């Protein structure tokens, strides 16, 4: 099969996105929307959107690419970057960077690893990162929202209070993770305050276009949309590497095999992905597989790297 041409200044990603949307539209069986957060269960699993952003902010999209959805665990990438930018390597004394091989909300490793979560993208690790960002800023979720608004150029991005309340009402497992880590001294803030920050963080609604743009700093080796630097080149490499190895939980190996890009999924059905030095992607379709990754989203990214040859390998 021939590789589709990818854009020079006179071409666009549009044809490849349209081809992928057409293929996905003809594929039956697209998973089930998350129902452990009741407010997410109402999503139409047939929704599908995909966007590609080039380094200069040019965005291409198809399907529901301008439709805001619940970002959920995708936000873990941004809180990691915001905290790493502030505290640097000290963070890695409190959270690891190895794949967990366990579900995103698992408790089992925490006890025999002394309350240090395996990586920043499982819930336990993300709680540690948000806690540390909260200590440093006094408003972790607010910092995150401001960052996403600035990078996407979309000042209307906001928390979804219904989703946050729904998750809070069904948040026993995250509360257990936070209390358990607090017992090892790995959480600084009062657990109810931390959970409030974390649920608001996860509830932010944004579209594929917004998230592809907001991820741009990882393709620009740490440089934000306005040209200022958030991360060193080395830190941007670190975040991309942890996304590749841990960004899709216990399916990270399969995702790397199929897609070959750093990626991060959320139970809202979104996935962001990075082609370092080239472009960023976001795909959304709410139907999930049993590991919590969007079925059509992974398939679409798999097709993108196959059709364009744009992977890190
Ligand atoms: N807010 C969700 C939770 O904590 C995020 C999980 C996810 O997107 N994988 O369970």
TrEMBL record:
Q: Which reaction does it catalyse?
A: L-glutamine + H2O = L-glutamate + NH4(+)
The UniProt GO MF terms for this protein read: glutaminase activity
Q: Which domain of life is it from?
A: Bacteria
Q: Where does substrate bind?
A: 73, 123, 167, 174, 198, 249, 267
Which biological processes are named by the entry's GO terms?
glutamate biosynthetic process; L-glutamine catabolic process
Checking InterPro entries in the record gives:
Beta-lactam/transpept-like, Glutaminase
User: Which SUPFAM superfamilies does the record associate with it?
Assistant: beta-lactamase/transpeptidase-like
Record EC number: 3.5.1.2
Q: Which Pfam families does its entry note?
A: Glutaminase
Q: Which UniProt keywords apply?
A: Acetylation, Hydrolase
Q: How does it assemble?
A: Homotetramer.
Name the family: Belongs to the glutaminase family.
Q: What is this protein called?
A: Glutaminase
> What gene is behind this protein?
glsA
């Amino acid at each position: 099969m021939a590789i589709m041409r990818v854009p020079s200044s006179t071409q666009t990603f549009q044809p490849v996105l349209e081809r992928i949307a057409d293929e996905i539209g003809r594929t039956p069986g697209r998973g089930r929307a998350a129902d452990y957060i009741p407010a997410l269960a109402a999503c139409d699993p047939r929704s599908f959107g995909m966007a590609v952003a080039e380094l200069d902010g040019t965005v291409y999209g198809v399907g529901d690419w301008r439709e805001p959805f619940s970002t959920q665990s995708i936000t873990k990438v941004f809180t990691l970057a915001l905290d790493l930018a502030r505290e640097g390597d000290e963070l890695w004394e409190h959270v690891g960077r190895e794949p967990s091989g366990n579900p995103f909300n698992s408790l089992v490793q925490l006890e025999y690893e002394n309350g240090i979560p395996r990586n920043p993208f499982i819930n336990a690790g993300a709680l540690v990162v948000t806690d540390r960002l909260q200590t440093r800023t006094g408003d972790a979720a607010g910092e995150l929202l401001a960052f996403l608004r600035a990078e996407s150029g979309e000042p209307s991005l906001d928390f979804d209070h219904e989703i946050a309340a729904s998750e809070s009402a069904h948040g026993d497992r995250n509360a257990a993770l936070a209390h358990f880590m607090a017992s090892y001294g790995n959480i600084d803030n009062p657990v109810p305050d931390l959970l409030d920050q974390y649920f608001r963080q996860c509830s932010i609604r944004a579209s594929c276009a917004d998230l592809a743009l907001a991820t741009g700093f990882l393709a620009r080796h740490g440089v934000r949309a306005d040209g200022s630097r958030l991360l060193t080149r080395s830190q941007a490499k670190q975040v991309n590497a942890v996304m590749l190895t841990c960004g899709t939980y216990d399916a990270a190996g399969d995702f790397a095999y199929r897609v070959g890009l750093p990626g991060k999924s959320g139970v809202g059905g979104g996935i962001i992905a990075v082609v370092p030095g080239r472009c960023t992607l976001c795909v959304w379709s709410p139907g999930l597989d049993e590991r919590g990754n969007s079925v059509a989203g992974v398939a679409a990214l798999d097709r993108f790297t196959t059709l364009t040859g744009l992977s890190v390998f």
